[in-house]
Amino acid sequence: MNTNVDICGVKLKNPVMTASGTFGSGREFSELTDINKIGAVVVKGVAAVSWQGNPPPRIAEVYGGMLNSVGLQNPGVDHFIEEDIPFLRQYDTKIVVNVCGHTIDQYREVVKRLKGQDIDLLELNISCPNVDEGGMAFGTDPVMVERVVSEVKKEADRPLIVKLSPNVTDITATAKAAVSGGADALSLINTLTGMKIDVHRRAPVLYRKIGGMSGPAVKPIALRMVYEVCKCVDVPVIGMGGISNGEDALEFIMAGATAVAIGTASFVNPNAAVDTVRGIEEYMSRYGIEDISELRGIIE
Amino acid sequence: MKTIEKAKVISNKFIDGNICDMVIECSRIAREAVPGQFAEVYPDNGVNILARPISICEINRIQGTVRLVFQIVGKGTKLFSQLRSGDTVRVLGPCGKGYELIEDVESTALLVGGGIGIPPLLETCKQLNCNKIAVLGYRSGSFLADEFREAGAKVFITTDDGSLGFKGNVVELIKAENISADIIYSCGPRVMLNALSDWAEEKDIRCLVSMEERMACGIGACVGCAIAIKEGDGFTYKKVCKDGPVFDSREVCR
């Protein structure tokens, strides 16, 4: 049985990744799951310098999901290079670095610093809803998407995945813009903007009032968007949004995704990514599928 | 080392109003846990996806059980209150950094708990081998107070309504009774902890506070449970679930 997938020349042993911001750089999960069994670890967003993040509360639970407004708190690219790359290289998995910035120059700065480092893929985060500058502000306007991607791509010495925001009317417009800008692959979806009010306190639960929604409840929306994007671009697509198990992952693969990522499910079950790999394998053996590619994009 | 266990409920009962007292069998967590740590308990109902952080009230390594005393505050805790002996519940633990226990038997430890902040201080009290004073603040009632006495503490009770013990808050009682100590272990509402920290600073007593914040993963990965901790002239956000929940009161921005 072959579960290998190829993302822009990088061979993953299976199509299951972790979603950025839900797995740290793997350290916290290493005592609870086997990182060697995961196709790739997509690390939490890395900026040029350390970012403080948003004031708490940053988390709210909603029906079948959650809201977050962490705001990309991270210790910066130098810390990442010194601490996290050596840590992750102990494991048999690929390293995907999620790159964030408030300005095009800041994105470029991170990618420049990562040149020659021992990593496999870059993921450009132009879709975080929890920062005022950069993030989703770049990711919802196709003209801006193309410009940011082409500017960052100039500095990249690894294939560049562009992570798309679902907070748009037409996801295919930003998807095509990213590809014209030079994206080697696309990943989607980032979180959907959402809100929760505590009626007893008569106040929003999150300090920033609005946050990003994720979890099982967003899966149908994510799947629809992945399906639409796969129909309109030729680059590999990494599907995510509410995936918790093998069957969820297979829906995205049948919709056309080359790989998938496990996000919020890792908070619910730290072993969710590994369980998803096992679920895919069980499905393949049950239906006599020799190669995962036989299932990719089978939905017309 | 943290583990996830499918814990068997040994007993579960209400001990006061909406306060539940649940003992669960989870031998690996019981073996590793120290006072002040917490467990992440999963509702697993498909709707409430996140685990609820619940402080560990008692640890029994021999029987492989931990005791969780929690308040019903929402759907998750309501669900846990309905578990019956023999049911199972998924638990991750032990999480976080617990209380550092002083060794000097001559010294005096002051345990200060407010409401649902009281339970983690019980195991702390049991494991401390020194003079112990417990100041327990309630809205009304006095759950667990007898067990602090059995654990060798001199117990003072305050209630908001004056129905039992001193009428007022814990800091007022500490001042009124002229209580002093070498170290303070505390857990409770933020406003109580702030007032206690002010008093401890004034008296130059080391004060350990157990903090609370909304969290998702409970292991330090999601960076949701941020708490402002002093750093230089400013502050940095640390994680309640991993860097805490116990902090030195002098580090915490008030």
Task: Give a written overview of the molecule.
The complex is a heterodimer of chains A (300) and B (254). Chain A has 300 residues and is an alpha/beta fold. Chain A has a single domain, classed as Alpha-Beta Barrel (TIM Barrel). Helices cover 31% and strands 20% of the residues of chain A. Chain A is built from 9 helices and 16 strands. In chain A, strands 3-16-15-10-9-8-7-4 form an 8-stranded parallel β-sheet. A 4-stranded antiparallel β-sheet of chain A has the order 5-6-14-11, with no helix packed on it. A two-stranded antiparallel ribbon of chain A has the order 1-2. The longest helix of chain A has 15 residues, at 272-286. Chain A is globular, with a radius of gyration of 18 Å. The mean pLDDT of chain A is 96. Chain B is α/β, with parallel strands linked by helices. Chain B has 3 domains: 3-95, Elongation Factor Tu (Ef-tu), domain 3; 99-209, Rossmann fold, CATH 3.40.50; 211-254, Dihydroorotate dehydrogenase B (pyrk subunit), domain 3. Chain B is 19% helix and 39% strand. Chain B contains 6 helices and 15 strands. Chain B has a 7-stranded mixed β-sheet, with helices on both faces. Chain B has a 6-stranded antiparallel β-barrel with strand order 1-2-5-4-3-6. In chain B, strand 4 and strand 5 form a beta hairpin.
